[in-house]
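Hey,

Quick one before I head out. I ran the complex with flavin mononucleotide overnight. Inputs first:
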Amino acid sequence: MVEVRYCSRGGNTKMLAEAIAEAVAVEAKDINTKVENEVDTLFLGGALYAYGIDKALTTYISELDKSKVKRVVVFSTSWLSKHAIALIKKGLDEKGIPYVDEFIYARGKPNAKEIAKAKEIAKNYM
Ligand SMILES: Cc1cc2nc3c(=O)[nH]c(=O)nc-3n(C[C@H](O)[C@H](O)[C@H](O)COP(=O)(O)O)c2cc1C
């Protein structure tokens, strides 16, 4: 089982989440929806806002149930920095939740090439 969760203020990360979700045939949901069932892969995404990730995303990660998430694939969008990926992974480390090294990224609003790449990567973790 695979799930997609995102935190997106402006819609860019949501757009990437929806591409990922389409590739793995599930529905992308924002982080207000908790993971209920055991998932093999959780695609978890957020963006960088002034060097940090949204507090709601930090809280979401801290409240993740380690017993329900086998591994995470992180995704993000930003103007330039990929720091959000490191921050999400740091939160997962603190929970002891495994993640893959590979990540999915788009610079701002995902373009067609980034959408295609996201789908290609996502399919490897179905
Ligand atoms: C208030 C604010 C601060 C931002 N700070 C950074 C930043 O420090 N570094 C960066 O690379 N991008 C930064 N960005 C760009 C966002 O990460 C980028 O627009 C991202 O795609 C937003 O995702 P969203 O549309 O899902 O909210 C910032 C954007 C906003 C609105």
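The chain has four helices and five strands.

Talk tomorrow,
K.
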